[in-house]
Design goal:
The complex is a heterodimer. By secondary structure, chain A is mainly alpha-helical. Chain A is built from 17 helices and no strands. The longest helix of chain A is centred in the N-terminal third of the chain and has 30 residues. The termini of chain B are far apart. Classes of the chains: A mainly alpha, B mainly alpha.
């Protein structure tokens, strides 16, 4: 067909345009709230923009974005395989705590060894957290959403418990763990940070995040494993019929997803965090990961960009109260963005209905009974 | 012995107190899930209800009006979820995630604007939901003290158990309930019988938001007397877990909520007396839930059409 595409067709086909439109609408709704509250839209959005568009601000954004990207990849990976990893929060927490313990207990090791060891223990801890849930699902048929919610809280209290142990607890009065060993830190050197004028927590974790992004893309798109996992995600029964071990795939997917979330925890701790406080409420990185995966359409590179975007909003949002705007405005904006992303399927549905009615119109009419009789004779 | 009876009374009190908001939200979740709409936004609807309930009670001085408005605020977000998922066919998990950001976001932002703080001003005794049985029992006897302990709950607690029976009745003894369940199992079949699936689901998601809103309001209007950003931290998700635990049946959800409440009550009593680390004790409800699931409950059968948007065929 050489029919010229109309405007609606272009919009409905392009996911990227959906996301951009949703973001635009998010800011629009944010502006409506600002006006309703009697605050200046220009001042609020101006502050949001100005706080992230200088080098120091941008370096903050990157630092904020590191865990969002990696946890976002974790959730995106699970989406691809048809599992909704609402348990990334718990996997993040145990990963972060595992890295923290490793760095404190093995602080004497040389820097590269210790850092790799920290990453590994974090990934293993996260993977174990994922596998437990997977095992409950495949062995006893326990709904994964339920057990993930439970294991998020078990991780929460486990982390608090470990943070209170004498070997781990801060010597001072702070309700937190000891600071991680200097050897386990991923921060750039002080001189480098000062010479460029970056933020004090600038670290090279972003390069790890980049590498993980490419790796996840590679696994999903270029390996047999990725193919099998996606097949299970699309249609469990067809995949099984095709000779794929569904249960094993679910376990693998959850293990990888958990390992990624755990790594996110390690990267946050070894770069920005430095130590783990005793939690009073959930950190919210798992939830942020879900949002980032959604905005990034579960595409690894999309997730990377979405993570930076989310980081920018979070960092910029933390500066909003300087102009008297509640920081929560950011949540309203992001919530609206996600809402519009959710309903953007309306375009696809519209198209499907349109093509269906077109097919119906073009299809030959069934012949009437007497016509058929005539043919026979 | 006296001590034991006392502790038992306190545990039972805490069981009821902890399960109340969960049960409101879980009953709400039942409505939505059974009609075929995954509602992960329960948490956000609870927060909206908690805020609206507290604020209205604070300004009008009438706790019941506040309580009702809490429900309505929840229903408002329910309607938002319904428009996205039922009318526009959006992914239900994504829309629910959006509700979970919007509910707390808007509530805390409004608190900031209205009270210049993220916390609202604490309610006075008269603005809180009243206790029904304070002073009814003679506390000089052991039994009287036990009863006094158990029934020291707020009116919202007794109300939710009535609501649970009512929901069970609606689900299994009325035509509406039968239709509701059918919508979640096979919407196409419903449509051929002349049931408006879209309308049914829309209504159910709104009811779900209303009940979640009530659940949120009874958190901030009873034991805690103010709305704070940490008022609703995960209760909505626990309620969803209780529904899955109860195999998507209101009476099952009731048991799930009570089990969870009981373990939390145990935590209160154990935390004071035993030498076990508080963090480990806090873990009990979650660990017990998983263990009970593995040992006794097993697989939860999800309504067949749950999570699938229903697009009316032309």
């Amino acid at each position: 067909m050489t029919k010229k595409k109309n405007f609606l067709d272009v919009i409905s086909e392009n996911r990227f345009i959906h996301i951009l439109l949703s973001i635009l609408l998010g800011f629009l709704v944010g502006a409506i709230f600002l006006i309703a509250m009697g605050l200046s839209v220009g001042e609020a959005y101006g502050r949001l923009l100005s706080s992230v568009t200088n080098l120091k601000g941008f370096s903050y954004v990157v630092v904020y974005a590191i865990p969002y990207i990696v946890v976002g990849l974790s959730v995106a990976f699970s989406f691809k395989t048809g599992v909704f990893n609402i348990g990334a929060e718990g996997q993040y927490v145990v990963g972060s705590m595992a890295a923290c313990c490793t760095s404190i207990l093995c602080g004497g090791l040389p820097k590269p060894v210790l850092i790799i060891l920290c990453f590994l223990t974090a990934m293993i801890a996260g993977a174990v957290w994922g596998i437990i849930v997977g095992f409950l699902k495949t062995k006893w048929g326990i709904n994964e959403v339920l057990s993930m919610i439970m294991f998020n809280w078990i991780a929460f209290y486990l982390s608090n418990f470990i943070a209170g142990l004498p070997a781990i607890k801060n010597e001072g009065t702070a309700e937190a763990t000891k600071n991680i060993a200097a050897n386990a830190s991923t921060l750039f050197s002080k001189d480098f940070i000062n010479s460029l004028g970056l933020c004090p927590t600038a670290n090279w974790g972003i390069f790890v995040a980049m590498a993980v992004t490419v790796l996840v893309w590679f696994i999903i798109e270029k390996t047999t494993l990725g193919y099998e996992l996606k097949a299970v995600g699309y249609n469990k029964f067809a995949a099984e019929y095709g000779g794929i071990h569904v249960n094993r795939s679910i376990l693998t997917a959850l293990a990888i997803s958990g390992a990624l979330a755990g790594l996110g925890g390690a990267l946050q701790l070894m770069g920005m965090g430095g130590r783990i406080s005793i939690f009073t409420s959930q950190e919210g990185y798992g939830f942020a990961g879900i949002v980032v995966a959604l905005i990034g359409c579960s595409n690894p590179f999309g997730v990377f960009v979405a993570g930076l975007f989310y980081g920018a909003l979070m960092y910029g949002g933390s500066k909003l109260n300087l102009v008297g705007v509640p920081t929560q405005l950011i949540n309203v904006i992001v919530g609206t963005v996600v809402f519009f992303i959710a309903i953007s399927v309306i375009f696809e549905n519209l198209k499907r209905l349109k093509s269906r009615s077109r097919r119906k119109a073009e299809a030959p009419k069934p012949k009437k009974a007497d016509e058929r009789k005539e043919e026979k004779s | 012995m006296n001590n034991f009876v006392n502790s038992l009374g306190i545990i039972l009190f805490a069981t009821l107190a902890y399960s109340t908001p969960l049960l409101y939200a879980a009953l709400g979740s039942c409505f939505s899930e059974v009609s075929g709409v995954v509602n992960i936004g329960i948490e956000g609807m609870m927060t909206a209800g908690a805020f609206a309930g507290t604020v209205i009670a604070y300004f009008t001085g009438n706790p019941w009006l506040g309580f009702l408005c809490g429900g309505l605020a929840g229903a408002l977000f329910g309607a938002l979820h319904a428009i996205a998922t039922v009318n526009l066919g959006a992914d239900q998990t994504i829309a629910g995630t959006a509700i979970n950001m919007l509910g707390p976001g808007i509530a805390i932002m409004l608190a900031k604007v209205m009270f210049n703080s993220t916390d609202t001003i604490p309610l006075t005794q008269a603005q809180k939901i009243p206790k029904l049985f304070s002073g009814t029992f003679d506390t000089s006897t052991v039994f009287g003290r036990f009863m006094d302990n158990v029934f020291a709950n707020y009116a919202s607690t007794y109300l939710v158990f009535i609501a649970a029976v009512l929901v069970w009745f609606i689900f299994y003894k009325t035509r509406f309930g039968l239709r509701l369940r059918a919508c979640g199992e096979h919407p196409q079949a419903c449509e051929t019988l002349g049931i408006d699936v879209i309308k049914m689901r829309f209504l159910c998601v709104c009811i779900s938001g209303f009940l979640a809103g009530l659940g949120g309001a009874c958190v901030t209007m009873t034991i805690s007397t103010q709305f704070r950003p940490i008022s609703i931290v995960g209760q909505g998700f626990i309620a969803i877990a209780a529904v899955i635990f109860g195999k998507f049946r209101p009476h099952g959800a009731l048991i799930g909520c009570l089990l969870f409440g009981f373990c939390s009550g145990l935590k209160v009593v154990l935390g004071g007396s035993s030498g076990i680390d508080m963090q480990l004790i806090s873990m009990i409800p979650y660990v017990v839930t998983v263990i009970v699931l593995v040992l006794f409950v097993g697989k939860s059968r999800v309504p067949s059409a749950n999570g699938k948007p229903y697009i009316k065929a032309k």
